[in-house]
Structure formats: structure tokens, C-alpha cells
Amino acid sequence: MVLLSANKYRSVYAFLFLLLLSSCQVYAPTQRPKAPAHPVSFIGSADSTSVGDLTWKAFFSDADLERLIDTALANNLDVRIATQRIEMARATFDVNRAALLPAVNAAGSAGVERFGKYTMNGVGNYDTNLSDNIGTDRRIPNPTPDFFLGLRSSWEIDIWGKLKNRRKAAFVRFLASEQGRHLVKTSLVAEVARLYYGLIALDSELNIIRQNIALQERAVQLVDVQKAAGRVTELAVQQFLAQLLGTRSLEIQVQQQIVETENQLNRLLGRYPQPIPRSKTINDQELPATVAAGIPAQMLRRRPDIRQAELELEAAHIDVEVARLQFLPSLTLTPYVGLNSFRATTLFDPASLAAGVLGGLAAPVFNRRPLRANYNYSVAQSREALYRYQQRIQTGFSEVVTNLKGIDNYRQVADIQAKEVDALERAVSISNDLFRSGYASYLEVITAQRSVLNAELGFIRTRQAQYNSLIDLYRSLGGGWQ
């Protein structure tokens, strides 16, 4: 019989050992996939000089624009929101760092419990009270109060590095939030500059439209004289008048666009609507003769969204390791020290000082399915972060090459359009002279006036597109947040 009992206990111990052993099984560490290689140059050039290395004050030469960017960086609400995200990430890191230290709480408690006569505590307390060694003040009352005043602690010993990895992931995400603020700044600088150049382009368009209005008003006066002389009909007068009215309506539309652009700029500057100071026209601005993009390695190191995606990938990979270590047992210590007594009158007696510690090793057994699901979720997040990182790199290359080509192509378009404007201005002058002499019809004059207006507006818009490409190139190379 004794032998059977011993065998039974051995079986129980063996079962518990196997159960504990099975609970310690974990996944093998995951290998981070390598990102595919990227080109070593953007468009065949491998010059290490890059406009992305310039600060925005060195890149932009317009004093009015510089003041606007300064104001935006100081007051823009998106920048302030990004700053608070950094503070949140910093607080998360502090929380995870504190998890490595024991949590110590000051505790004070009071309770009461009545033990039945046929319970172990009830019988034990009754028997203890009958002992000659127990004085009156040490006899256990029933119901039995319990008073405690002291310190209690809980401390998980990081035997596998799980808590350190959580702290590391939180720190990496803190660094990623810093890059997020840099990304907001690069986008803000670019958007302020884009709106500013759009605004001065609209100013130039408005000036051109008003010049053409004056030209068309003189044409209406001329055709009235021609009608009085019997050389043209009322149809010609109405055609010239219709063209003048159409140009005047275009003037009002551009004025509204100027108001909208100013208000968009004011919103980026973190202020209510007010006039935007500008002292230069779009034609007064100087474009650099050559623009260097540098090499891709510089863009990868400088561009905030790529750096942020890289850090988020690093944090996601650490999360996978934390999820893997969740399968291992955790060791927790719960010590306490303080005054403990079943009488309030003796609570502060030095003899009431009590201390203890409890250590526990806990391993998941029946809750491994949620842990496995959490592990698979972390792996999927890590892969998503990798693909997002690759996507950011591809986007960066595409933006740089597009804007490099755009700067060159728009420069060629602007040169051609400038010649077109000169030719059409001469055509307007010639058509007016011929119309006075009776050698050209009024339709030829109207066509020449409409053509020169469209050409002049097209030239201004091409100039604006040149600056937009230059600004987008600067942003795509990671410039503007220094």
C-alpha cells in the first residue's frame, strides 16, 4: 500500500514536471528579413553634393518667405501636436523603464475575521489562548482584528530580458516620434513655401489680367470709333465687349484665389486671417542654375519619414522578441515590512514589527493560445513595418527623380513660353495697327489679345511649377527640419 502511494506521488511529480517543461517551450528567435538593395544614384549622377544638406534659411533667399517660415515653425499647431506625441512617447519609455525596478507601496489596512469553532484557525487560536506562555495582551480575540501599517512591494525579476526589451522598444519609439516631428517640419516648410510662391504667382497673374483689361478697354474704344465710321458692325462691338467682360470676371476669380491662399498660409502660421506681406513678384525670384540631389544614401539618412519607418521597424522587431519571451516563466518577489497586530493598542509596539517575502515562479500552461496569437500578431506587425519601410524608400526615390526631371523640363518650357509671349505681344501690336488701317478683321485682333493673355498666364504658371518642383525636391531629400 505504501509502495502504491509512493508510485502515485511519483506519477504526479512527473506529470507536473512535464507540464512545467512543456510550458517553457518557446518559438525560435525570428530572423529579420533584409531590405532589397536600392540604386546607388538617382539619375546616373553620383555627386555627393546635395541641396538637402542646406538649412531652409540658406535654401530660400526671400526675406518675406523666411519670416513666414519662422512664424509657422513657432506657432503651427501640427508642430505642437507632434511635440506632445514626443512627450507621450517619453512617458511610455519612463513607464517601461520603471518596470525593471520594484514597485514599493505604503500600505495601511484594517480588517476583522471570525473563525468558526470547527476550523483549523478557530481550534488553534482557542488552544493557544489556554497556554500559560500567552499573556493577557497576547490572547487572540474572536472575531480577530488585523491591523497593518508598512511597506509592500512587488518585483518581477527580469531573468529573460523581457522587461529590458520592452524598455528598448519604448525608447526606439521615442526616437521615432522625434523623427515624426522632423517630418512635420519638413512638410510645413515646404507647404509654406509652396503657398507663398503660389501667392506671388497669383499677384503676377492679377497684374497681367489688369494690363490686358486696359488693352481690351482701348480696343473697345477703337471698335466704337470704327463702328461710327461705318467700318464695322455692332457684332464687332459686342465681341470686343464680351471679351472685356470675360477678362474682368477672371480678375475677380484671381482675387478670390489670393484671399483663399492667404488664409491657407495664415492657418499654417497659427493665426487668424490677415494680409500676407510680400515685396517680390514671381519673376523677381531667382532659380539656381543647377540643383544637386546627392546620392541615395544621404537621402536615406536625412529623410525623416524613412528614418521614422526604420525605427518603427526596429521597435516592431523587438516586440516580436517580447512576445516570444512571454512563453517563459516569470519570477516575482512580493516582500513586505511593517507593523502588524491584532490589537490597535499594540500596533506601534516594536514587538509588532513584521517582515516577509514570497517568491513565485509562474509559467503559462493553459493560456498559451492567447500568447501564441499575440506572437503571430507581433510577427505580422513586424512584416508590415518592413513593407512600410520599403514603401517609404521607393516613394523617396520616385519623388526625387520626378522633381529633378521637373526642374529641368519646366525650365525648358519657361524658355519657350517666354519667346511665345514676346511673339504674341508683337502680334497684338501689329493686329491693332492693321485693324486701324483696315487690313485685319476684328476677329484677328480678338484672337491675338486672347492668345497673349493665355500665354502670359501660362508662363507665370510654369514659373510657379518650377518653384514647386524645386521645393518638392528639397523636401523629398529631407531638407527643412534642421
TrEMBL record:
InterPro entries: MdtP/NodT-like, OMP_efflux
Location, primary (coarse class): membrane
Top-level taxon of the source organism: Bacteria
Residues of the signal peptide: 1-28
Pfam families: OEP
Keywords attached to this entry: Lipoprotein, Membrane, Palmitate, Signal, Transmembrane, Transmembrane beta strand
Localization (cell): Cell membrane
Membrane topology: Lipid-anchor
Family: Belongs to the outer membrane factor (OMF) (TC 1.B.17) family.
PANTHER family in UniProt: OUTER MEMBRANE CATION EFFLUX PROTEIN (PTHR30203), OUTER MEMBRANE PROTEIN-RELATED (PTHR30203:SF30)
Protein's name according to its UniProt entry: TolC family protein
Organism encoding this protein: Nibrella viscosa
